[in-house]
Amino acid sequence: MANTATIEINGQKNEFPLVNGTENEVAIDITKLRSATKGVITIDPGYKNTGSCESAITFLDGEKGILRYRGYSIEELAEKADFLEVAYLLIFGELPTIEQLEKFHSDIKKHSVVDDDVKKILDAFPKSAHPMGVLSSLTSALTAFNPSSVNVNSEQDMYNSVVRILAKFPVLVAWTMRKKQGLPLYYGDSSLGYVENVLKMMFKQPHEERYIQNPILVNALDKLLILHADHEQNCSTSTVRIVGSSHAGLFASLSAGISALWGPLHGGANQAVLEMLEAIKEDGGDTKKYMAKAKDKNDPFRLMGFGHRVYKNFDPRARIIKKAADEVLGDLGVEDPILDIAKGLEKEALNDDYFVKRKLYPNVDFYSGIIYRAMGIPTDMFTVMFALGRLPGWIAQWREMRLKKEPIGRPRQLYIGETLRAFKTIDKR
Ligand code: CMC
User: Is 413 among the domain residues?
Assistant: First the structure.
């Protein structure tokens, strides 16, 4: 196969090298395009064809429905690993030994205190504040309480910032939920595993002397967090990388990622899916009516939890979550009519020409909300749970970008506005 690509502009041929990824993906390296062509750029709204970086963290083949973290299949990780192991794998590149994992966890526990003044910030939010806005603000506020910048040339400094945020973030997640519910805010319990601690911080009631862990909830949350832990370049991850590329700190970059995740086309879809399923139920469960709305180009309604920029086959995460939804609801003895509506919608969509032609399949968010709801997590916290899962991926991508000394992100544009015109003074009287 040729190892160059030729672009001919006005009769002038320019050759550009092709670069290959380890999974035989091919890219045209256009870093010299502007200088070779005297200013020509490429244009690609939504970056549908543009690789912004080389990355060794996550591999995704959307045609085949493959997702791997550092070479390990998502199916195997979801079955055999726990969330903290996966976090270590994503961030540092290899699965930890037992000693490394224990040290990692013990270092995280040492940093789990969040300054009490953060509670004052939390107090200032109105009750109606969306938890994602609160989480993004609190994450950014952490910078004020941990002002020293990370020296990316120091392995130790990088490590310290990683364990610090992995420790404090679950506290912010739990506090965000409890504050809204008017419950007292607790710190973590260092005798517990990472995910067990999250559950205790979120759910321990004031009247309970002891919080009893439910292994079904622990397993379900562990799996959901693993499935969300990274997803190569996407709206929030690329935001984290681009904010970090200006050498803004880790917490500031993560806060920007949380805001990007919030939107209903991205992580906010899990909340939107549940609200959609509720609305269909309230409306008598007529799925055909909503299928028709989703296909109607004059109707802004979309089937939330369906479709994906990259997956043109089953989202492998959705496959695992659908199975887990059945198991978790069964184990918890929860009967949720919304699960049946979701399955009905999926069946109709998979047999509908509109969806088949556009290769629209359920994505990770289609069934996750049903599990979160069965676990007792409020709907407006669903995207916060996604953020908790995505945290190691964002950290890994930020760390990779800084260690590779990537240049500041700064896209070009094609200007289509007015050309030079003369200023006309208005009569101000
Ligand atoms: N319902 C109805 N039609 C859809 C849907 C949908 N959910 N998704 C895509 N389409 C149609 C779209 O109208 C377009 O049709 P046409 O070619 O006739 O104009 C075609 O499919 C291609 O869609 P697109 O919007 O050009 O695709 P995209 O790659 O820009 O957008 C997406 C991907 C995920 C934003 C989109 O599929 C969507 O809005 N889905 C619903 C929201 C959702 O579930 N988001 C969660 C994504 S997974 C979690 C994560 O972010 O990681």
Answer: no
